[in-house]
Amino acid sequence: MFNQGIQAxxxxxxxxxxxxxxxxxxxxxxxxIRRNKYGNIPRGKVKKLLQRSDVFSGKVKGVxxxxxxxxxxxxxxxxxxxxxxxxxQYRFREVAEKRVRQTLVRNFTVAMGGR
Length: 115
Hints:
With 115 residues, the chain is an alpha+beta fold.
């Protein structure tokens, strides 16, 4: 039961879309960091990076985030965003309504003893 709440929380953005506000100060969005096969960053990656001497958190040219100092200059690793906009990716309601329209009359007739 506990997992269903977690799943519902992230699936609502996939199904409904909308603007997501952060639980804390800002969302930390990967910019040039590799993600795992699920599109996420490993737990503790941000904290581990910030412990390095060539990585810092700050604002450069109006963009807040986590940067790495390289020989070529600064590299944005993570960007801080006050809100994230999600487009609906899965049209669950439309798919469900279409399926109900396709099968409701037939299933109701069978349930009532018809053919």
